[in-house]
């Protein structure tokens, strides 16, 4: 193993390690999905919503509180359709409450 004597950015490290590069791409994709649906989420709930993990064609949205989760579940078909119209292959959005 070759040790470096200089600092590298997280992005540089991710680009050089295939597993980190894949993880970084998933994080960026998840964040982009959230940005794409942000306008469909009521303004009062936006601070309670975070992008979660992607597992194939399933995407997870993390929310703070059961009331926010309930509202997002009502919007779920609209959010899924919007993402598909933007080119993402999303078969389902999972909504998970963070405690």
Structure description:
With 99 residues, this protein is of the alpha+beta class. It has one domain (10-98): GMP Synthetase, Chain A, domain 3 (2-Layer Sandwich), CATH 3.30.300.180. It is 47% helix and 21% strand. The chain is built from 3 helices and 3 strands. The protein has helices at 10-16, 18-37, 66-85; strands at 49-55, 58-64, 92-98. Strands 1-2-3 form a 3-stranded mixed sheet. Strand 1 and strand 2 form a beta hairpin. Helix 1 (10-16) packs across helix 2. The mean pLDDT is 90.
Quick summary:
It comes from Simplicispira suum. The chain is of the alpha+beta class and 99 residues long. The protein has helices at residues 10-16, 18-37, 66-85; strands at 49-55, 58-64, 92-98.
CATH-defined topology: GMP Synthetase, Chain A, domain 3
- Which geometry do the CA atoms define? elongated
Please report which band the strand proportion falls in: under 5%, 5-15%, 15-25%, 25-35%, 35-45% or over 45%.
15-25%
The end-to-end distance, rounded to whole angstroms, is: 41 Å
CATH architecture, please?
Answer: 2-Layer Sandwich
The whole-angstrom Rg is 16 Å
Count of β-strands: 3
Number of helices: 3
What number of domains?
1
At the fourth CATH level, what is the homologous superfamily? Answer: DnaA, N-terminal domain
Please list the strands of the largest sheet in the order they lie side by side: 1-2-3
Question: How helix-rich are the residues, as a percent range?
Answer: 40-55%
CATH class: Alpha Beta
Main sheet summary? 3 strands, mixed
Element-by-element helix/strand order: HHEEHE
Task: Output mean pLDDT.
Answer: 90
**Which structural class matches the secondary elements?**
alpha+beta
* Low-pLDDT runs: none
Protein name: DUF721 domain-containing protein
Organism: Simplicispira suum
């Amino acid at each position: 193993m070759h040790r470096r004597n200089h600092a590298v950015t997280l992005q540089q490290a991710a680009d050089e390690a295939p597993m980190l590069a894949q993880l970084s791409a998933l994080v960026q994709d998840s964040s982009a999905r959230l940005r794409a649906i942000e306008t469909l989420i009521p303004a009062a709930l936006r601070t309670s919503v975070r992008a979660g993990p992607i597992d194939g064609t399933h995407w997870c949205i993390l929310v703070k509180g059961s009331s926010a989760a309930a509202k997002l579940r009502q919007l779920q078909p609209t959010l899924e359709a919007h993402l598909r119209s933007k080119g993402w292959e999303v078969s389902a959005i999972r909504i998970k409450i963070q405690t």
